[in-house]
Structures are given as C-alpha cells and as structure tokens.
Write a structure and sequence with these properties.
718 residues; mainly alpha; 81% helix
Amino acid sequence: MHRSLVVAFALVLVLGMTVGSSAKDEGGPLVDHLNQLNVKIEQLQNEVADLETNFGREVDERERLMLQRSFVEGREFFYELHDYRGASEVFYGIVNHPLASSLPNYNAAIFYLADSLFQSGYYPEAKSQYERLIQKGPSDYYAMSLMRLIEIAVVQRNYSEAERLYSIMLSKFPEGEDGSLGRYIIGKSYYERGETAKAIEVFDSISEEGSFHATAQYYAAVLFIKQKNFQEAVNRLRRLKKELKHDVANKKAIFALTHLALARIYYEMNDFPQAMANYSAVPEDYQDYPEALYESIWVFITRNDYLLKAIEDERDSYENILFDFASFREAVDSQDDQESLSEVVAESDKLQADLDEMKGMFDEVDSSLARLQEEAIGSFNKLVQAAPNSPLVADAEILVGNIYSQVEDFKTADQWFKRLKQKYEDFYASIEAAQPRLTGADYVGVVASASSSLSDGSPMSQASLRGLPEEIAFWLAVDPDVRKIFVLYDAANNERQNVGKMREMIGDIEVKLRELEVGGEYPFYREANRRSLQYRSEIESFQVELLNLRNEAGQSPDEAVRNHVQSGVSGQEGVLSNLQSRLGSLNVKIDAKKQERLNYFRQELAVLRQPLDEYDRASNALMASSGGTLATVAAAEMADIERTVAEYVQKADLGIIDVAWRSTRGSSREIRKLQHQMEEELHQLQRSQSPQESAPAPADGEKSNPTPPAPSGGGSGS
C-alpha cells in the first residue's frame, strides 16, 4: 500500500511537471511578457516609494540651494561692494526663511544682516540681530557682535549700557586675545565726552598687537595736542609712524592723519622743513589731501616771510656797508703813499672777503626763496588738479599772488591779482543778479545737482545752475552745514524712491503668487510634479499592456497558461491601482506643501506691505522738512559766499596795492644802487685826471691882479 502511494505521488509529480512544462512550452511568450512587466512594475514601485519618502527633503534641499546662492550673491555682490542697503534686503529674506535655521551659514547670514543694517544707520534693527547672535552663545561672530553693541550704545549715548557691555568684553577677552575694538570704542566715547584722562588710559590699554592700537594712539596724541602738550603728541605720533604695520583696521586713514597732525604741530613750532616733509607724506587718495596741499602753501608763505624778515635789515645793512666800503677802498687806492697804507689795505682785503661771504649767503637765501616759490606753485597746481571745485582753491590763489610778490616777481604778481580781481568781481555780479530770483526749490536744486556732479563727475547743466557760476554752486554744496542737511534730504528722497520700488516689487510678487495659487507651477516642486506625472503615465501604459496581455492569455488553449498569466495580470493590476492611489495622496501632500509655502510668502508679503504707507508718509514728511531747512541754510550760506567773494575782490585789490608798494620799495633800493654807481663813476672820472695837473698859466701881457687881503680895522685905505 505504502509502495503504491509513493508511486502514485511520483506519478502526480511527473504529470504536474509535464503539465507545467507544457504550459511553459506552449505559453512561453505570454509568461515572458508577464515576467518583464513584473520587473518593470517592481522598479516603478521602488521609484514611487522613493518619491513618497524623499519629495519633502528634495524640495527643502532645492530651497536650501537657492538660499545658499542668495547668501553668496548678498555677500559678494552687495556687502563686499558696500551696498549695505541691498545686502540687508538679501539677508533679511535669507534669515527669515522657514529653512534658515538649517543652513550651515545661518549665523553668518544673521551677522551680515546685522552689519548691513548697522552700516546703513538702522541701529535699533541692527541691535536686535546682534543680540540674536549673542544669545546663541560663543561663535565666530560673538566678539564682533559684542563690539557692535558697544558701538551702538555709544552712538545712542547710552553710556551705562556701553560700559556694562565693555565689562563683559573685558571678561570675555583676556590679554592674549584682541578686544581692541571694544576698548577703542569706549575710549572714543570718553574722548567725545571730554574725559581726557579716562580716554588716554583706555587707549593706552590696547596692546601693540591689537587691531585698533594705532587708531587709539592717534586719538591719544590728539588729546595731548588739545592740551598744548606738543612734545608728548609728537613723541606719540613719531612712534605711531613706526607701528602702523600693526594696524589692520584703519591703516591708510591713520597713516594720513598721523602725518597731517605732525605737519600741523611742526608748523606751530616753526619747524617748517619738518612740517613740509609731513604734509608731503599725506597720500593723494586721502580725503584731506587737498587740505594738506593748501596748508603746505601756507608753510611756504610763512617760511618766505620768516626768511625775508630775518634778512631784510641785514641785507639793507650789507648793501650800505658794501657801497661805503667801495667808496672807502677807492679813497685808499687813490693815495700816493700805498706803502704806508699797507695795513689798511690788508684789513680792507679781509673785509672784502667777509662781504663776498655775505653775498654768497644772500645769494643762497635768494635761491632758497626761488625753490620755495616753485614748490608752492607746484602744491597749488596739485590742489587744483585734486580738488578743482574746492573753496580752498580760492584762498590758495590769493596765497600764490603773495608768493609771487614775496620773491619780487612783481609783473607776474600784478597780473595774477588783477585776473583774480576781475574773476571775483564777475562772480559777485552773477550772485547779486541771481539771488533775488532764487526760490527755496532753486537752492535745493542747485545743491542736489552740484552734489551729484561732485559724486559721479557728471557735468552740471546751465539750467541747474540757476544763473550762478559753477564754482559757486560747488562751494555751496560742500559747505559743512549745507552738506549735513543735504545728507538728510537725500536720504529721505532715497527712502521715498525705495518705497516706490518696494511697491513695484510687492506688486510683481503679488502677481506671481496669484499665478501660483490658481495652478501655476511652483519652482521648488517642479521636479516632484514632473516625476508624479511621469509615474502616472507609466502606470497607464502598464495597465493597457496588462489588459492586452490578459486578452491574449484568454485566447490561449492551455488552461494552465491562461490561469497563470491572468492571475499574474490581476495581481499587477492591483499593484498599479495601489500606486495610483498613493500618487494621488502624494499629490495632495505636494499641493499642501506648496500651499504652506505660498501662505508663508503671502504672510511675509503682508508684513512687507503693512509699513509702506507709514514709510511713505514719514519719508515725504522728512523730505519736506529737510528740504525746507536745506533751502534756508543754503540761502544763508549763499549770503556768506557773496560776502566771501567780496572779500576776495578786496584781497586781490590789496594784493595789487601791495605789489605796487613792494615794487616801489624795490625801486628805492635800485635808486640807492644807482646813486652809488653814479658816485663810483664820479670817482673814476676824478681818478682819470692827473693829480699834478694845475690851473693854466696866464696869457702873455696879462697881469696878475691878486685879490688884496681884507682890510683890518674899520676904514678903507686911501
């Protein structure tokens, strides 16, 4: 029995294998097709699963990539190029993005936002961002944020807060670390409050390796100058010149300021060569370079005066001695008994040598004056080239005329002063004619146009000058009081323009958001949508292919093959149906994620739009207020300029008179020389006559009738 069962079971297996083999043999293409579809559908299942798992991460990564690109653009193309307003706009968008905290350079973005706001003068907003970095604890930006908070406290005159932060800084930065900016800021606050001793103490606490050591030492020297302690100031400034290599913060500016300060101190101490050496060391690209050139011309004037006054009496005495000596020597040479006068001749020879030495000294002084004249004219030409529209040029022109007069180039000096007089008379006439017609708006327009020209080098149109000479418009624009008010006016005008640009930008964003909300393609989800649509299309293709395969299997005469293939098709149809359902759910998630982002941007848009009206009103009010103040200040300054121009006319006129007087004094010297020359010629004429020559003898027959002696007594003889 057992054996029969085993045989029967083996027979069944053999028969089954035969049936399967027959199904495979007869339905081979159908089964192969099914197997191929199984592989492809399994691959599709894996891809859909990957999309389900990673679409959110993929979208976030794409957004992070966009944020990283914005970070680089904000740093390289705005912050590093000192466009702090543009940088603040870029970094604001980065810092306030939902994914910002996941960025590797999140702290850097906060710092760049804070520093852009700080550099733009938005101190409260900058303060809040620096405080965010401080609250995060130690980082690469902790120290700088603390320094900036100290600086903001000083700017806002919250000195108690500044000193509190300063004490924190001292505890955070031991001597081995560079906390020099904080010390410098606190020292500068004492400096500005007039607490000299405290300021110097803090400045001196900055080590030589500190980034702001040189800057601090410069201000310490300035404090000693204010105390009239010139020697200590000079000592510090001399050391500072050697230590500038340590200054990584303000090296160029401190280099220029140090030489300018030394030049001024040496000028006060009448050390003119040292003054000139330091004025000459001020770099051409420094903002006060024109002022250094102008002051150097004063050094030439003062030095010339010093030399002229020092030798004027000596020169007159020398010339008188020279002429007297010439007369004396002629008298000695005219004597017959030269042997008896040998000692006198020897002494007179020594005196002649002394006079020749004195002449050499005066010739050297004259050469020095000529060199000083050339250097002064050179400084003037550099000044005109460096700052052609500066009011300093007008003062320098008067000085140049005086220099020509000093060196007794009277013809050039006279022509120079006459030209200046005519120039400033024309300026005065133009101002006098234009002033009554100038309105407040005209003054604002002149200042704005001249400021723009000074900024970008663009020419001023005649219409923008309102009848004023171009030089006068520039003088008006660079006046410190006018400039200070114009900066406010210009800032208000820029704010108003920025409000307009923001309205346009918000309008563009609004249009884009509407497009996205009604079905537009949101860029960050483009890839997810593309893949979802691709998978749907593939599912539909597979469904069609499975249906065709089912129909083909239904026509197979082999029931086993038919059942096998149709069963496999049914299973895969279920898989595809499930995939369709999952993709539908995924699309809902994508749409929800998209809506989440759109809602965020709409909220941000509302936040941006909300203060615009207030900004608009504030900027318009500030512009109107600053414009009115600017017009008033500019009108007052124009009156001052008119008086100044009148003074230039008077100075030029006085220069003409001074030239005439100096030339007359020079003529007197020439007359005196001429008199001595005439005397010398007379002596030479006398020497040309023989010493033995007597009166001619009387003619023959002529009696000599000598005059009788005067009678003695009271009567006449008979």
